[in-house]
Amino acid sequence: MTRPSRVHIREVGPRDGFQNEPEHIPTEQKVRLINALAAAGLKRIEVASFVRPDVIPQLADGVEVLNRIDVPDDVRLMVLIPNSRGLDNALKVREKFHEAAIFVSASETHNKRNVNRTVAETMADNEKMAARIRGEGLDCAAVVATSFGCPYEGKVELDRVLGLAERFAEAGATEIGFGDTTGMANPAYVSEFFAAALERLPGVEVTAHFHNTRGQGLANAYAALEAGCASFESSFGELGGCPVPPGSTGNIATEDLVSMFHEMGVETGLSLPGLIDAARAAQDVLGRKLTSHSIVAGPVNWN
């Protein structure tokens, strides 16, 4: 594959990042940070999920966030939908977002621990939801978690992961993201994986979602890029993680990913200084140091 000269990046910090914080972030601060991310040029932002508030109380104000954020008209907002009941609630504010994401874990054990259902039960519901999402005129994205390995089952076969992705595509998903949910991927396998995914999913936007749990996140993103992947998800400040199991740390930092791409001559359409400012603002809101490298070092200065 030819290395893409331009990539698309979706910011997932306002959902994937905020949900893993131990304390609730005030709504007005969430709104301020999302607005800052949009001002940095991001055209794709995941802003909320429609999970039961008692399960993820950190995101209980999702509707209020959707109502209060003020971003340019060309910014596409995504929400995460766990099940049909969540979709019912999301569609009550359907005019506030553009894309809905549904998901499953490739690992049976992780899926049961994450959503308390089997993979078969989750996929049956997902296929129904995909039809409803498309019927509402919304874009349907899908996510396959634990695509590169499961902390409970170990290796997850490539054919199993791509088989689930093909089912999502048949149900109408126009984008499919592959999540390294607990940071088990390595660059060699990532290269093999995305070469196969791009071949088996023609016409589908294939998205890479890496966590930096073991410090290999950017190396994995580079491997995916070299394999031809042009769509990525990341989180400002390296916020995020996975609550199942504990110890699964955050996504690769958006500003670190953009810094790497820019130094390679790959266009993102984003302002790196603006992203760093947003990440530093999040650091101030949370009252602790975040793990992004660019927060400390800033952009490379060749002058």
UniProtKB/TrEMBL annotation:
One of its GO terms (biological process) is L-leucine catabolic process. This is Hydroxymethylglutaryl-CoA lyase. Keywords: Lyase, Metal-binding. Residues 1-24 are annotated as: Disordered. The lineage of its organism: Bacteria, Bacillati, Actinomycetota, Actinomycetes, Pseudonocardiales. It holds the Pfam family HMGL-like. Residues 7-276 form the Pyruvate carboxyltransferase domain. It comes from the Bacteria.
